[in-house]
Amino acid sequence: MNSYYDIKFNVIGTIYALLGVLVTSVYQVLVKNKQADLKANSMQLLLYQAPMSSVMLLCVLPFLEPVFSDGGVFAGQLTTSAISLALTTGCIAVLINITIFWIIGNTSPVTYNIFGHFKFCLTIIGGFFIFHDPIQMYQVLAILITLSGVFVYTYEKLRPQPPVVTKDDIEEGK
Fold first, then answer.
1. Do 143 and 125 form a contact (C-beta atoms < 8 A)?
2. Which of 45, 51, 104, 152 is 20 to 30 Å from the Cα of 35, by its Cα?
3. What is the block-wise mean pLDDT of the chain (174 residues), using blocks of 10 residues?
4. Is residue 82 domain-resident?
5. What angle do CA 142, 147, 151 make, to 5 degrees?
6. What is the Cα–Cα distance from 170 to 167, expressed in whole angstroms?
7. Which residues form the Sugar phosphate transporter domain (predicted)?
8. How much is the pLDDT for 1?
């Protein structure tokens, strides 16, 4: 609902969005499992994952991007500002990946997604207050629903949980 007025919907876009959700969900669960299997922290997992991702992207890049043709990465002049922007973007991407792995490793993929929705709401609210972007009533309603869900989830996660009784506890008479 938040982005309803910002984009236009079509069938192919919906298919890509659904595939993106599916791939992202599987990826987040795999990150959690791999981090647990390797007993790795977020930096170690990033060092494990980044080279493989780079090689895979380099293999796919020529088929998806016009690398050397008009509009391609290597078609124009590589100015100092373009190189600086590319390096800055790369550094930001590394920091984001570290944050993703840290959140998923210390919490869960669900908490990471809740955090993502919270961040999206803050982006919409920030755009309204800082840049005076117009906001529709549907967006206000969606933000309120989303933030309510974030607060309920946070409350449930922080609420003291009753101790888990195991089969051994029952057998021992605890």
1. yes
2. 152
3. 57 86 87 86 82 86 77 76 89 87 85 89 91 89 93 92 79 69
4. no
5. 150
6. 5
7. 3-153
8. 47
Report the C-alpha gap between 34 and 51 in whole angstroms. 16
Residue 120 CB-density burial (10 A; 0-12 exposed, 13-18 middle, 19+ buried): middle
pLDDT for res 47: 83
Q: What's the structural domain count of the chain?
A: 1
In a domain, 103, yes or no: no
* Distant-in-sequence, close-in-space partners of 13: CB < 8 Å, separation ≥ 6: 7
pLDDT at 42: 77
Residues 5, 9, 11, CA angle at the centre, nearest 5°? 170
Structure tokens at 167: 């089969």
Domain that holds residue 139: 108-160
Give the 3-state DSSP-derived string for 68-94, with helices as H, strands as E and coil as C. CCCCCCCCCCCCHHHHHHHHHHHHHHH
**Is residue 122 domain-resident?**
yes
Give SS3 for 134.
coil
78 part of a folded domain:
no
